[in-house]
Design a protein that fits this description.
The complex is a heterodimer of chains A (122) and B (106).
Chain A: E1 3-7, E2 10-12, E3 18-25, E4 34-39, E5 45-51, E6 58-60, E7 68-73, E8 78-83, E9 92-99, E10 109-112, E11 116-120
Parallel strand pairs in A: 2-11
Antiparallel strand pairs in A: 1-3, 3-8, 4-5, 4-9, 5-6, 7-8, 9-10, 9-11
Chain B: E1 9-12, E2 18-23, E3 32-37, E4 44-47, E5 61-66, E6 69-74, E7 83-91, E8 94-97, E9 101-105
Parallel strand pairs in B: 1-9
Antiparallel strand pairs in B: 2-6, 3-4, 3-7, 5-6, 7-8, 7-9
The chains are: A mainly beta (122), B mainly beta (106).
Chain lengths: 122, 106
C-alpha cells in the first residue's frame, strides 16, 4: 500500500524558514517523480514544486521560485521542501504527491499524503 | 500564465447527472485530470488522461476533453459525491489547477 507521510509543519514567524519532509513507502520511491501542492485555508489547490525521480530536475511555481528548494533522498525514501523567507501568503496545508512517471513533467498525481499545516504569522 | 476556469458551484439532485466544466486555451491538446476533495481530506484522483478512471473509482464518474473545455460527468449522483472538484493540466513544465467547483447534492 502506497503511503506518503508529511511532517515538519508548524508556526513560523514571517521571514523565517521551515523544512518539510515526506516519508514514502509501498512503492519504489527512486523510480517516480514527486511534487508538493499546497492549499491555503478555504482556498483551492496550488502547485508548488516538482522533482524528477533522480533528483536531477526540479521545477517551481513562480510564487515560490528563489525561496523554496525541493530535494529528495532516495536512500531514505524521503522528499523534502526547504522553505525560506516565509510570508503570510505561504500559510497553507502542504501535501506531497506522487507522480506516475520518472520525469517531473507530465504524468499525473495518483497518491497524496494527508498534509502538514504551515502557518506563517507573528 | 496558463489558467483553468471552473464554475464555483454546481448543484444537483440525487440520482441526476452532474456536469462540471473546466476551460482553458486549447485545453483539448493537453491531458486533464480531475480530483475530488471532501472536507478535511486529501484530494483523490477520479479521472486521469481525460477519460480514464483509476481502480476503485465508480463507473458513474466519466470525463471528456475537446477544444477548450474538459468535462467531468457524474451520472446518478449520490450524496457521497458532494465535494470540491478540481481539474488539473500541465502547461509546459508547470502544473495548473482550476479554481475548484463545489458540488452540492440536494
Amino acid at each position: 500500500e502506497v503511503q506518503l507521510l508529511e511532517s515538519g509543519g508548524g508556526l513560523v514567524q514571517p521571514g523565517g524558514s521551515l523544512r518539510l519532509s515526506c516519508a514514502a513507502s509501498g512503492f519504489t520511491f527512486s523510480s517516480y517523480a514527486m511534487s508538493w501542492v499546497r492549499q491555503a485555508p478555504g482556498k483551492g489547490l496550488e502547485w508548488v514544486s516538482a522533482i524528477s525521480a533522480s533528483g536531477g530536475s526540479t521545477y517551481y511555481a513562480d510564487s515560490v521560485k528563489g525561496r523554496f528548494t525541493i530535494s529528495r533522498d532516495n536512500s531514505k525514501n524521503t522528499l523534502y521542501l526547504q522553505m525560506d523567507s516565509l510570508g503570510g501568503e505561504d500559510t497553507a496545508e502542504y501535501y506531497c504527491a506522487k507522480l506516475t512517471n520518472g520525469g517531473a513533467v507530465a504524468g499525473y498525481f495518483d497518491y497524496w499524503g494527508q498534509g502538514t499545516l504551515v502557518t506563517a504569522s507573528s | 500564465s496558463y489558467e483553468l476556469t471552473q464554475p464555483p458551484s454546481v448543484s444537483v439532485s440525487p440520482g441526476q447527472t452532474a456536469i462540471i466544466t473546466c476551460s482553458g486555451d486549447k485545453l483539448g491538446d493537453k491531458y486533464v485530470c480531475w480530483f475530488q476533495q471532501k472536507p478535511g481530506q486529501s484530494p483523490v484522483l477520479v479521472i486521469y488522461q481525460d477519460t480514464k478512471r483509476p481502480s476503485g473509482i465508480p463507473e458513474r464518474f466519466s470525463g471528456s476533453n475537446s477544444g477548450n473545455t474538459a468535462t467531468l460527468t457524474i451520472s446518478g449522483t449520490q450524496t457521497m459525491d458532494e465535494a470540491d472538484y478540481y481539474c488539473q493540466a500541465w502547461d509546459s513544465r508547470n502544473v495548473v489547477f482550476g479554481g475548484g467547483t463545489k458540488l452540492t447534492v440536494l
